[in-house]
Specification:
EC 2.3.1.275, acyltransferase
Length: 212
């Protein structure tokens, strides 16, 4: 039951749609421009770098802070603290991607997932950051960098859970792997249109401006 409550709490936190709020402050619905989602990348493309940074930090912190709070509350049981943290983190991403008051049309959850990654392990976060920067610098495709980050999240979490978090081979270990896989796969699924455009060569590159 606690897991369900953590998902629900996370979902409502995720409904704090930073991109949509920032757009409304600029008298626009950000979802009507660019790629049509309320995330940091589209805000960057439509409203510029400062707006994109503000939205990224908002979406990043709304997952990072609840995850760290949950880890602290359940710190006496290391393995369960990680599992519970992932439940609230998954809830945040679901709330961000599918906000009920916006017709379930939000962002793609990359910034919020980045907050979860940092809460899990700074080593995973650093590797993800390096790969993301290199990928975007070479290809100028933010979506491709985001997809690579999710693959790294799944792979490194699967490896490190066995050696770094005190799980052993019990149920918590399997639950941790399933949750990190679910978070990563969800983000990749949200990029399905980007994947189609990447394969066809029509994906938008970073730095390309759109008409406001």
């Amino acid at each position: 039951m606690l897991r369900i409550w953590l998902l629900i709490i996370g979902y409502f936190i995720g409904n704090i749609e930073t991109g949509y709020i920032f757009g409304k402050l600029n008298k626009m619905d950000i979802r009507n421009y660019g790629s049509g989602n309320a995330g940091a990348t589209n805000t960057l493309r439509v409203l510029g770098a400062k707006a994109g940074l503000v939205v990224f930090l908002g979406d990043f912190c709304k997952s990072l802070i609840p995850c760290l709070v949950v880890r602290f509350i359940f710190r006496d049981n290391i393995s369960l603290s990680y599992v519970y943290m992932l439940y609230i983190g998954l809830g945040v991403v679901l709330g961000h991607n599918f906000p009920f008051y916006l017709g379930f049309k939000g962002g793609k959850g990359v910034a919020s997932t980045a907050g979860i990654i940092l809460a899990i392990d700074i080593r995973i976060a650093l590797v993800c950051l390096i790969v993301f920067i290199i990928t975007v610098a070479i290809t100028r495709y933010v979506s491709l960098g985001s997809i690579f980050v999710m693959i790294i999240l799944i792979g490194m979490s699967h490896f490190l859970v066995r050696f770094s978090y005190g799980f052993g081979d019990g149920q918590s270990s399997m639950e941790f792997r399933l949750l990190t896989a679910a978070i990563g796969v969800l983000s990749i699924f949200m990029h399905r249109a980007n994947i189609k455009r990447l394969l066809s060569g029509n994906e938008n590159k970073i730095g390309k401006k759109v008409e406001k």
